[in-house]
Amino acid sequence: MAIVLSDADFGGDFDEEAHDRDEFHIDQLVNEFVDEPPVRHDVYPESDTDENGDGTEPVHTHIRRGDGHLYDKQTFFSGVAFKEAVTDYVLRTGNNLKQYRYDKDKIGFMCVGCNGDDGSRCEWKVYAAILPSDKMWRIGKFNDKHSCIPNGECEMFKVPHIARLFLDKIRDNPEYFMPMKMEEIIKERWKISVTRHQCQAARKKALIWIDKEYDEQFARLRDYAAEILESNKDSHVEVECVTTDDGKDMFNRFYVCFDNIRRTWKETCRPLIGIDGCFLKNKVKGQLLVALGRDANNGIYPIAWGWLKLKTQTIGFGL
């Protein structure tokens, strides 16, 4: 679960860009979804490229990001997606790019690398816009010829970009990805020079984003419980809160048991129930407990689970 904030480098406020980023990921998943044919284990593909197993080539879409390639007329779901694609291009090539157009419906980047000893600028440029008659952002101008040589500098590679690159890694292992390690990885992997101060600011920004994720996710906990009950008939969900002195509901405990899992356990598993759990050691301290069964292969089968916030914890989240 990743959250994106913005600052002056991106020319927009946080709420708008975060909303665009969420819509971009959702639309991308929907667009790339392919309903697979039934699996027949007695039929082998005709070749290594016949991935679908039915004689048809795998379906591909031109809407992609993350590979670091740009081309003319390429489309994107939002301006945020276009910016991320340009960032991936920088990471792949190491060229010194800079954003020169910040309009809501027009975004442009240019190369500011020097061409040899004469000091002339490189002519590389990319420009994308969204038209009133088109729902997609589209690259309308793209000059893909560089006359400069990458030297490890990039003006657009600022603190928010570094924070986005290391957001998931800092979330998983915050003690390992310290500023010095981040600077080392950037120079070794992408050949881009950054300062220790930039990495310190990026790590701090990433931690702020992670902390904000907890607030936003816990604020939607009751919506999550309602969605479970709506899409899983006869399931059991409980969200327990405590009321503070100022009248706000603060999270205390959460429990869920899906009806399908419960019925499957009763019909196919052994009539034994065990309990397992672990302590959560991040910002949200508490204990995760799971009721477990054993299936016919003596494998662990989760029946229900819940989370209990420690009584000594002073951090709460408004619901």
Question: What is this entry, summarized?
Answer:
The chain has helices at residues 14-32, 79-93, 159-172, 179-190, 196-219, 221-231, 259-268; strands spanning 75-76, 97-101, 106-111, 114-115, 120-121, 125-129, 137-143, 236-243, 249-257, 274-280, 286-294, 300-309.
How many β-strand runs?
12
Mean pLDDT: 80
Strand ordering within the main sheet: 1-7-6-3-2
Going by helix content, strand content and strand pairing, the class is alpha+beta
Strand portion: 15-25%
Question: What is the count of helical runs?
Answer: 7
Task: Please estimate the helix content.
Answer: 25-40%
Unreliable parts: 1-14, 38-65, 312-319
Taking all Cα atoms into account, the compactness measure Rg is 25 Å
Global outline: elongated
What order do the SSEs take from the amino end to the carboxyl end, as H and E? HEHEEEEEEHHHHEEHEEE
Provide the number of structural domains: 3
The end-to-end span amounts to: 19 Å
Described by strand count, sense and barrel closure, the largest sheet is:
5 strands, antiparallel
Task: Give a description of the structure.
Helix content is 33%, strand content 23%. The chain is of the alpha+beta class and 319 residues long. It has three domains: 122 residues, no CATH class; 62 residues, no CATH class; 89 residues, no CATH class. Strand 11 and strand 12 form a beta hairpin. Helix 3 packs across helix 5 and helix 4 crosses helix 5. The protein is elongated and about 80 Å long. The N terminus and C terminus are likely disordered.
